[in-house]
UniProtKB/TrEMBL annotation:
Pfam families: ACR10_N, ACT_ACR9_3rd, ACT_ACR9_C. Keywords: Repeat. Gene3D superfamilies: 3.30.70.260. Binds amino acids. One of its GO terms (molecular function) is amino acid binding. Residues 112-195 form the ACT domain. This is ACT domain-containing protein ACR. It comes from Salix dunnii. It comes from the Eukaryota. The keyword Cytoplasm does not apply.
């Protein structure tokens, strides 16, 4: 086999009619977790996967995703990011179909973006939207409002393009923020900081039971409001239908990032997909069939492993994120938590969706913080948002929880 060029690795066929799905085809050497990485990129670009087919012989894989999304999707940039996630392979390297995964890349440089500005409704969401558009990933944030009404925003970010160390990229970032914030922006500074600033903390005493409960045994709390969970999730495992694979059949309600949640769970368990098919109907019901093997190429026959994987998949589909409101003295704090992949990657666009929900509810943010915490034996990203109740909270807590949950799940408001 000759050299595989980028144009052959990822092919995107955009839909001719608005509302119809576009088709993304990926043809490249395989690696464990590739499907997860691709689905995460597709989620970051705001696209929903409505159908998917995956096949691999363990060395070479072929994936097709039917996606729908925004008219503003930057398809060229999406293709570039998908190609970067795929292993490269050429005959000149002496390898045929399979290329062993290279050494893990070094952690990205972390930068501190310090913004000083006058406060206004929706400001934090507007800033977050600009950072997402510029492919600047928020690792940690500290937002506070001063007594005079001005805001100090500290964003600890990494740059997907790896250019933020240059003056041009820094100036471009501040210019984009200025264009959105206008005269409300007082200053914009960007400097490199150490990676330890975003390290995970074991402290989680401030988290309520709605966030931390039952994390360790991976069971679904019965007392959760139905509005804060998905419904009708069925996970069945069968070893009788294939001589070499375990068949996992999943029936559930669709949500934003559904295929990503399944893929990241399998990646964390080192489970490989030999063949898979995913589809949704007009009622947003999903059917998923996955033919799986362990890393040794064998079926999953251990009952304990079957039960652990099945329970984990069910939990991730019923409750991929956790949302709660709590009292902080006289004030109300919104808490959102999502699990972090074992690779260290968090879920895309969570802070973007939180701030958009609060903007749509006309609810102001007094302060906000993102940190990573150990809950049980697992790492979570925890978002703490203190709501501004200067004139009393006009929106009931239950409505805030429900609206934020629906936004995160991609369900109609």
């Amino acid at each position: 086999m000759g050299i595989l060029y980028d144009d052959d690795v990822v092919i995107i066929r955009q839909s001719a009619k608005e509302g119809d799905p576009s088709v993304i085809t990926v043809n490249c050497p395989d690696k464990t977790g590739l499907g997860c990485d691709l689905c995460r990129i597709i989620l970051f670009f705001g696209l929903s996967i409505v159908r998917g087919d995956v096949s691999t012989d363990g060395k070479w894989c072929y994936l097709v995703f039917w996606v729908v999304g925004k008219s503003t999707t930057r398809w060229g940039l999406l293709k570039k990011r998908l190609v970067e996630a795929c292993p490269s392979c050429s005959s000149a390297s002496g390898l045929s179909y399979y290329c062993a995964e290279s050494q893990p890349p070094r952690p990205p440089d972390v930068f501190l973006l310090k913004l000083s500005c006058h406060d206004r409704k929706g400001l934090l969401h507007d800033v977050t939207s600009v950072l997402c558009e510029l492919e600047l990933a928020i690792k940690k944030v500290k937002v506070s409002t001063t007594p005079d009404g001005s805001v100090i925003d500290l964003f600890f970010i990494t740059d997907t393009r790896e250019l933020l160390h240059t003056n041009k990229r820094k100036e471009d970032t501040c210019d984009h923020l200025k264009a959105v914030m206008g005269n409300t922006m007082l200053s914009c500074e960007i400097e490199m900081v150490g990676p330890e600033i975003t390290a995970c903390s074991a402290e989680c005493s401030f988290l309520p039971a709605a966030i931390t409960e039952n994390v360790l045994p991976w069971v679904i709390p019965d007392e959760l409001p139905s509005s804060l969970t998905s419904t009708s999730v069925s996970v069945n495992m069968d070893n009788s239908l294939s001589p070499g694979h375990t068949l996992v059949q999943i029936v559930c309600q669709d949500h934003k990032g559904l295929l990503y949640d399944i893929m990241r769970t399998l990646k964390d368990y080192n489970i490989q997909i030999s063949y898979g098919r995913f589809s949704t109907n007009h009622r947003r019901a999903c059917d998923i069939d996955l033919f799986l093997t362990q890393t040794d190429g064998k079926k999953i026959v251990d009952p304990n492993k079957q039960k652990a994987l099945s329970s984990r998949l069910e939990m991730e589909l019923v409750r991929p994120l956790r949302v709660a409101t709590v009292s902080r003295g006289p004030d109300t704090e919104l808490l959102v938590a999502n699990p972090v992949e074992l690779s260290g990657k968090g879920r895309p666009l969570v802070f973007h969706d939180i701030t958009l929900s609060l903007k749509m509810l006309h609810t102001c943010i007094f302060s906000a913080e993102i940190r990573r915490r150990m809950i049980g034996d697992r790492e979570f990203e925890v978002y703490r948002v203190l709501l501004d109740e200067g004139e009393g909270l006009a929106v009931p807590r239950s409505k805030i929880e429900e609206q934020v949950w629906k936004m995160l799940m991609g369900w109609k408001q």
